[in-house]
Protein 1
Amino acid sequence: MTEPTAASRKPRPGLGRGLSSLLGDNIREEPIAGTPEANSGIRMLPISSLVPDPNQPRRHFDEEALQNLAESIAARGMIQPIFVRPHGHSYQIVAGERRWRAAQRARLHEVPVVVRELSDVEALEIALIENIQRQDLNAIEEAEGYARLIGEFGHTQEVLGKIVHKSRSHVANLLRLLDLPPAVREMVVRGEIDMGHARALLGAPDPEKLAREVAAKGLSVRETEKLARAAKPSTKRGDGEISGRDADIAALERQLGDVLGLNVKVSYGPKGGTLTLSYSTLDQLDMVCQRLSGERI
């Protein structure tokens, strides 16, 4: 019996179970036929035959950690295989690019690999799972991976949450970070500010300037929130004047945003106000319509 192609294969229900099942049970279920390593599903390949995936979620590799791993591999060898898929005359790395980079530094000629036929969406899902479980992704890299799965492959936030074992609100909060200016997102990537600081700067005037101040002064997340509120222009409500957005309104926006998975803005005045929901994909719009109409999602 011939093995089904990646295009005809149904989505794997095991993705949500994590890499332990993907790289464990599934290896035994789908050995690589015709190789001496068929009983284990692991084979040795020249390190030069592997190429990184230009679209993989992880972009930042800590230099010191990479060097430490290279020294460990040189001394003890590579214990865990690299997960790859056929790519022309070579093999594209799905999970394990850091190990591949370290193996190059350790001057290995061959590395252990597991080869699978995978679609683009399966490859991205597995790469996200591996990096998230290892806590190797910063918040921006994780958010960009989610955005690609939504924009290119039509995933919903609920489905993403199940795949990576995170709450839907976690996915929604990360996606909102992509609304920040590129310079601020890059500061998150470099570790100069973290996710909490970045969230506090959403909606603030000149977030890039504020982010630099946060990094220079080493402010906490709570101090960053105060800084962002103080930077907002004063607004009038009735006869009185308040500084920045009302704290209760900001809290309501965050609460509604977590529930809906969208950017929410509440504007108010003496005679009423408006509630604005911002969506980035038609899938998100469809979700809102279903929620408002009471249909099952």
Note: The longest helix spans residues 139-153.
Protein 2
Amino acid sequence: MRARPDVSPGEGRWRVRWFVVCLVVAVLAGCSSAERGAGTAASSAEAFTTTDVAWLQLADALHARVRPLLELAPRRAASRSLAALAVRLGKEHEAGRGRLRALLAVAGITGENPHLQHDMPGMPTAADLRALARLRDGVFDRRFAELLRAHLRQLVLVANGERDSGGAAAARVLAGTMVREHSDDLGELDRAVSA
């Protein structure tokens, strides 16, 4: 996996290692205990690998865990552009979760997502949200943008990992789509912050 141009080589290697560790954790924590639908994955024309399932679950959790962050911006942001971006991303993240969960169903993975309760890079923590809820105007905007940028970068990072290393074509295609979408979101965030 290539490091992004704006990421130092050391940070890029750390992110790749983190992605691999995350995949191993997902396999050990959730994939082996997840219930499989009756023959759905086995009869599928393409097999979903543990990498595919780990990415689908992690991306779903990332999309779900950012929702409270996005809900704060319309009430507290000084920037109308940031507030509008948060509203749009809230809707698009729900649609993204639908796409991710549809592929999990095709893979035969049911049950609770093991990552939803974990605090991982790109997921605003409860402490982050409590602190952010006390801020307003420009101070809110700066911290909101930092948290949202970390979230979007993490989505791009893990989607790149799936696109480059995944097994099922459908998962790799969705990952490629999400890389493009979330890279565009990062560009829009940068424009909103500098406006």
Note: Residues 1-8, 13-45 have pLDDT under 50 and may be disordered.
